[in-house]
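Standup notes
- DV: blocked on the single-chain target, sequence here:
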Amino acid sequence: MGGLVAQTREDLQAPMSDLAGMVFYKMTGSGNDFVMLDGRHVDSATLTTEWIAQTCDRRIGVGSDGLVIVSPVDARRVRMEYFNSDGSYAPMCGNAALCSSRLAAYLEIGQPEDITLVTGAGEVRTRCVGPAHFAELCLPSFTLPVRMPIEPEPGESSFFLGRVGVPHLVVLTRDVDGIDVESRGRVLRHDPVLGPEGANVSFVSPPVEGEGPWRIRTYEKGIEEETLACATGTVAAAFILHHEGIRRLPSEWVTRLGYRLSVAGMTEGEKAVEAWIAGEGRLVYTGILK
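- DV (later): unblocked, structure below
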C-alpha cells in the first residue's frame, strides 16, 4: 500500500547538513540586513538556491534581505559573493559591501583602512571609518542614468534608468511617503521598457524642509518587496540629481527608518567617477547554523 510521508525541516536541509555548526554573522546596513558567512569555511558552489532562500526566510530561517559570503583573495583583496533572499545571484549590493568591509576587518582578513572587494560588478575600494560600524566604498565608474518614457502616476514626475552594479530605476516624486512602494514598485520593476532583466526601483523626494537630506525608498528585485535601504540605488539617485542640477554632490540621504547615507563624487561627460558612499555596516549578532 502507498502512503503519505511528511517532509520534515531536517529532510529539506539534509543536502546542506555539512554546514551544521557553522557560525554566521547577522549584519545590517541601515536596515538592509544580511546573513554573512566566512568563505574560508564554505564554498558558494555547494549552496543551493532553495537553501539560500530558506536561510533568508524570516519565518523558517535566520531572516534577511540576502546572503553574503566573504573570502580572502590575497593580502589586499577580499571576495564578496551576494545572493538575494530568493536565492538568485546578484553582482553587487552596496549595503552588503559596507557590511562585508566591516566583517573582513572583524575576521582579520582585510586591513580596515584599505580593503578591495572583488565583486561580480568589478573591484570596489572600501575602508572602515568613523564609529565602529561605519564604512565607505568607492564604486567603479558608471554611465549616468538616462530618462525613460514611462507614464507617471499622481505624485511622480520623471524616471531614470542606469546600472550601478545592478540596474536601478529612479523615480522622482513629490513625497515618497505618499507612494505605495510595494504595489507601484512591483509594477515598475517589470515594466517592458526596462528590458527582460527588470530593475530595482527607488522613489526619491525632496527634504521635508530646508536643505535637509533627500528621502529615498526602494523596491528591490530578487527580494520582491520594499527593503529598508539601498546603497547603490542611493548613489544612482544622487548622481541623477547632480547631473540635472537639482542637488549638487556631495549630498545627504535619509532612509525610511531615518538612517543617513552620504554620497560624493564627480562626473566626466556622461560618466560618474569617484562615486563614494558612506553608511552603516553593523554586526547585530552571531549564531550557529543547525
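- Follow-up: The two ends are 35 Å apart (CA to CA).
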